[in-house]
Amino acid sequence: MIRRLSILDRSRTREGRPVPEALRDTVDLARTAEELGYHRFWVSEHHSVPGVAGSAPTVLAAAVAGATRRIRVGTGGVMLPNHQPLVVAEQFGVLEALYPGRIDMGLGRSVGFTTGIRRALGRNTADAGRFEEQLAELLGWLDGSQRAHPEVHARPAEGLRIPAYVLATGEGAGIAARAGLPLVVGDLRARDKVTEVVGAYRGEFRPTAWGAEPYVVVSGTVAVAATAADARRILVPEAWSLAHSRTRGSFPPLRPAEEVEAMAMTPKERQLYEGALAGHVHGTEEQVAAELSEVAELTGADELLVTTSTYDRAALLDSYRRLARVAGLTPRAGL
């Protein structure tokens, strides 16, 4: 079994519910995750996506950290090509100053989802190619080693030890290895590819002041319920959102599973929907325990970062409680 278990929540919106409710749900889920003994709780960055409310991850991370006491809090991730590294350093410096020893800095390489979003952000697809350069600059702001602007200091970040993680596959894994940083890689449906990327990362890893040895976080969707059918139903709303986005160009709010299952889909929608359902870790507690043991053996991962989303919040919370039992997490008392 993977020894650490964490959650990435994307603040998914739900059809018929106000968008701000998704952000409050994220904060509430973080409290539950802390009580159940999860290691860390991360939030994401998405711009102008109808199905996702989390557009400002450092702001949301501050709300999560303020609502919890012990669980590590961070981002999965801040998309560095969308931002100036100095500003990112300052934001995380404020978080670490307010919540010392609890803040993680997860960093991704993606730029805006559409041409319009990229224009609004003042970015283009070529900016993703500057990620390694931006990452080095960001780390330099934190440890005081940057020399491009000697008269400028990232206060209060400079000198603070804020763990950084690279969310990446392929070339991005090499960037993490060269920087001596932990790697976050997904998803569990492509286990052979994940194993290949992880192996390359470990082989290329160079110890630096930021990390002495490789550390691998495998990210994926996990759904646990009383029956395998109930666990599969947890996956249905997200699977339909993905199929919708691939056929209609927008990623919509989650719909109830029973509505999705009753829909008349086109052959293309049906193909994409069934594909989006396939390969995730899901089932009863016993079935999920066996699958996660297989994942641990294949990847040698140090940590699993779970990203499950569904319309039914009660089913989602029950899944996370069951998963905590599967992993043998120790609930935290006195919170």
Summarize this, please?
Helices cover 46% and strands 13% of the residues. The protein is built from twelve helices and eleven strands.
The secondary-structure element order is: EHEHEEHEHHEHEHEEHHHEHEH
Computed structural class: alpha/beta
Number of domains: 1
CATH topology: TIM Barrel
CATH architecture designation: Alpha-Beta Barrel
CA-based shape: globular
Number of helices: 12
Helical fraction equals 40-55%
Proportion of β residues? 5-15%
Rg of Cα set:
19 Å
Looking across the biggest beta sheet, what order are the strands in? Answer: 1-2-3-5-6-7-8-11
CATH-assigned homologous superfamily: Luciferase-like domain
Mean pLDDT across every amino acid position: 95
Low-pLDDT sequence parts: none
What does this structure look like?
With 335 residues, this protein is α/β, with parallel strands linked by helices. The chain has a single domain, classed as Alpha-Beta Barrel (TIM Barrel). It is built from twelve helices and eleven strands. Helix 6 (171-179) links the parallel strand 6 and strand 7. Helix 3 (85-98) crosses helix 5 (131-143).
